[in-house]
Amino acid sequence: MRSWSVNIGTAADKENDSDQKDVTWAVKCPLIPNTVNGLSRSKSLRKDLSHPISSQGREIILQCFENPHSEFGNKVLQRIFEKRADYQKYVYTLGKERAYQMSIRLKDLVEEVVSKIFDPDHICSVSRTYGEEHVELKAYGFKPDFWVTIADAITVEGVILDMANHQVRFHTVTHPYT
């Protein structure tokens, strides 16, 4: 997991404070992007800078996961399996039972994140733990670049859940007695 930094003070402040050379001029924060020369890499229109997801985004996520989704982890990993030959090799090396456990663990992680969607510190903690669990899987062929594919697949499955959520509401509104 990345750690972001926020610059405190100006370059002039830093130069004038030569007595405190050991003082760190950046505070680690997992929620705010790096700044370079006082310029942020990304801009945000959100008013709540203490949370990386807008309040509307959090509500959408909660709505998507109102119904149980026991196959979420499996669908995400299956999507990756179908796209990448190197991931297929990793899964075969991992073995059927352990691969199944990994899909359950991913589902549990997503459910935990959703249940604590308003607590970014908790999300960082469980995400870090999940990532650390994958260190030992390098011996089976897990690659760091799988994380991007996992994130993409989670996003796609989340969009599918969101579309399903809207279809149910649309059907209920247009045909409430069917």
Automatic annotation (TrEMBL):
GO molecular function ontology, one term from the record: oxygen binding
Top-level lineage group: Eukaryota
Cleavable signal peptide: none
Protein name per its UniProtKB record: RelA_SpoT domain-containing protein
